Structure to design on (695 residues):
């Protein structure tokens, strides 16, 4: 019995780590959906770009896998530049692929985002190749603090860092949305884009800001996972995007706290499921939960009921 | 009128049939194909296969080719995707100057495409595909220079019991043809040897996060963790996350992990002391292979285990084509019959090669390696005993 408890607490740690990452990705989906009512299928690729940017930063600032600067500084630099690069790309995508279609049927936007996703994937495949890029991170963290033992549970330094960064980013985002003027404008735009425009809010600017924040968080998720699992390739965005999207729907699409809760719930359920079922079925369990939630609470865990607009 | 058209159609039809069956002039040209996953996660071992085959072709051409005709070596990339593998098979079989193919090296891609090669009588020699069913399907055109999974599984079970002295074994497999089958064969062997305390679970290729299933392995507390995945990067993550979780079982990887860069280097120390099995021997210890090793390293850099069987396979294929072309005429079916007649071919692998009636290697062996520093050290060779 003690065995199963030890195992479950270890799985909880595994689940919270990956769940936090799902939450960061889900926020991007949910924010864009909130203001534009569209699913940005290219979001997973921003995650992948975040991973690749981090790899290049690590590559440039280390010689023979030994970093040339302070490790903490290098990790921060990787995270910040990855977020920056993904944010930049998010802006470019919005400008080129979505803004010209702002007044077109929603289906066109959806197809456009699929096209962008395929383009970015193949662009990276062409210029970076299909082989995985390996992060040589052992020189970044001193041997003595690499792994911690708490009871029977093992937590690596990287996991702690990933969990902390996820939560710090989520708290910062919540503060921005709740306390600042920009946050208020985002909420207003999400509630009713036309009314917000009447009230003097520059909705185009708000949409740009939403893409900026969502993409940056996606990029952060990408580099955090790459640091944790030490590999990135051109195809990682697909799976991550799917999981992030599921988390967003689970939490109630359009709701930021919902995306956070949905991500964590999905991550923990997946990890716990492996304890009781063969590990190949973990996605089956995750999606079964999604289906059940949607049957009994179609608006998601924290979503608001959407009234049909007449 | 109608009758005339039908007769005409029949004439054209027979003309076609006649063309594919009758022998070609050797002087028209000779091509050999190389089917493999030259891009994607298996690119490193597959490029080693291609480069080694290329060396064999170059050497034949330097000696004057076949009946004075220079041999053309064509690459067919399937990117580790069965659908692409079928396209490669169609491309190769429709090339009427092509008389044989080295590959495909990956079992599930071979499984998808072998039928097409067979329908067109095009000989295939694989250098790595090890799923037993591939030669159990009654194909006449398919040969392999590597041992099958049932041999590897049994040998691995023997090694785990006798050398690693394990009593409890965890087996994880990625759900594709080769991995699933290797897991089955190994578990069957372990049970025959009296090891019944076995955990059997699955992983997903490319998932990059195996911590959940490894947590389960840790709770099981095995003596040996047999991690059956296709590619080296996935196994590097596996060994790394196993060490991170504090699993002290011996990590045992597959042939795909015999890759210095993508397994030993990529795992940054976690792979020290890990074992892998492989279908080809440590080529550096074989006297007959000295020239090959020297030339390969001069031209392409370091060598793992995938190159030597490919060099051997291409040489065997070209010998068969050479024999078939002796009379100045050659056909694909002639090449197949010459191949099945190969007996005790002595090349660089350190053992003579003969094929049985299914196209399998007679007396295949499994080689075991231990990671020591930045290299693999051969620790055992087992042949089923």
């Amino acid at each position: 019995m003690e065995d199963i408890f030890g195992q479950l607490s270890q799985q909880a740690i595994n689940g919270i780590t990956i769940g936090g990452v799902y939450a960061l990705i889900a926020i991007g989906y949910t924010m864009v959906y909130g203001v534009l009512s569209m699913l940005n299928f290219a979001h997973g690729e921003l995650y992948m770009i975040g991973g690749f940017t981090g790899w290049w930063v690590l590559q440039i600032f280390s010689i023979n896998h030994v970093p040339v600067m302070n490790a903490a500084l290098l990790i921060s630099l990787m995270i910040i530049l990855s977020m920056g690069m993904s944010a930049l790309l998010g802006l470019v995508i919005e400008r080129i692929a979505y803004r010209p279609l702002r007044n077109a049927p929603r289906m066109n936007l959806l197809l456009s985002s699929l096209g962008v996703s395929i383009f970015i994937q193949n662009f990276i495949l062409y210029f970076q190749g299909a082989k995985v890029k390996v992060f040589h991170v052992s020189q970044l963290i001193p041997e003595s603090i690499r792994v911690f033992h708490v009871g029977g549970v093992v937590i690596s330094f990287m996991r702690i860092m990933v969990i902390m960064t996820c939560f710090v980013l989520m708290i910062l985002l919540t503060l921005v949305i709740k306390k600042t003027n920009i946050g208020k404008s985002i909420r207003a735009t999400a509630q009713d884009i036309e009314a917000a425009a009447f009230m003097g809010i520059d909705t185009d600017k708000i949409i740009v800001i939403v893409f900026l924040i969502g993409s940056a968080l996606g990029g952060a998720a990408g580099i955090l996972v790459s640091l944790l699992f030490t590999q990135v390739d051109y195809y990682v965005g697909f799976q991550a995007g799917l999981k992030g999207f599921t988390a967003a729907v689970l939490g109630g699409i359009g709701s930021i706290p919902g995306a956070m809760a949905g991500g964590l719930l999905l991550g923990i359920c997946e990890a716990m499921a492996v304890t009781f079922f063969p590990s190949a079925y973990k996605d089956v369990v995750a999606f079964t939960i999604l289906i059940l939630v949607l049957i009994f609470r179609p608006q998601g865990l924290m979503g608001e009921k959407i009234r049909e607009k007449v | 009128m109608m009758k005339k058209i039908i007769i005409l159609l029949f004439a054209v039809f027979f003309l076609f049939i006649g063309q594919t069956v009758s022998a070609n002039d050797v002087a028209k040209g000779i091509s050999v194909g190389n089917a493999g996953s030259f891009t994607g996660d298996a690119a490193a071992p597959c490029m080693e296969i291609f480069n080694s085959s290329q060396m064999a072709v170059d050497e034949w051409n330097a000696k004057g080719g076949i009946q004075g005709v220079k041999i053309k070596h064509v690459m067919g990339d399937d990117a580790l995707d069965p659908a692409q593998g079928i396209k490669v098979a169609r491309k190769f079989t429709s090339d009427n100057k092509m008389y044989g193919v080295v590959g495909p090296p990956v079992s599930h891609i071979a499984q998808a495409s072998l039928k097409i090669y067979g329908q067109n009588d095009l000989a295939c020699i694989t250098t790595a595909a090890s799923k037993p069913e591939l030669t159990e399907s009654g194909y006449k055109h398919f040969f392999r220079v590597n041992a099958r999974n049932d041999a590897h599984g049994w040998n691995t079970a023997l090694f785990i019991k006798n050398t690693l002295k394990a009593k409890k074994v965890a087996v994880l497999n990625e759900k594709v043809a080769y991995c699933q089958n290797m897991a089955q064969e190994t578990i069957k062997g372990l049970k025959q040897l009296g090891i019944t305390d076995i955990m059997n679970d699955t992983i997903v290729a490319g998932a990059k996060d195996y911590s959940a299933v490894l947590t389960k392995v840790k709770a099981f507390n095995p003596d040996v963790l047999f991690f059956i995945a296709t590619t080296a990067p996935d196994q590097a993550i596996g060994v790394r996350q196993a060490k991170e979780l504090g699993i002290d079982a011996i990590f045992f990887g597959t042939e795909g992990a015999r890759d210095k860069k993508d397994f030993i280097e990529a795992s940054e120390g976690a792979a020290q002391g890990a074992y892998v099995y492989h279908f080809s021997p440590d080529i550096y210890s074989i006297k007959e292979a000295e020239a090959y090793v020297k030339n390969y390293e001069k031209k392409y850099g370091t060598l793992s285990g995938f190159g030597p069987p490919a060099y051997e396979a291409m040489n065997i294929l070209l010998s068969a084509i050479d024999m078939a072309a002796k009379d100045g005429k050659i056909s694909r079916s002639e090449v197949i019959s010459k191949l099945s007649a190969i007996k005790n071919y002595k090349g660089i692998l350190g053992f003579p090669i003969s094929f049985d009636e299914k196209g399998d290697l007679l007396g295949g062996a499994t080689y075991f390696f231990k990671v020591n520093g930045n290299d693999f050290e051969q620790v055992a060779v087992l042949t089923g005993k």
The mean pLDDT of chain B is 90. Chain B has 13 helices and 14 strands. The first helix of chain B runs from residue 2 to 21.
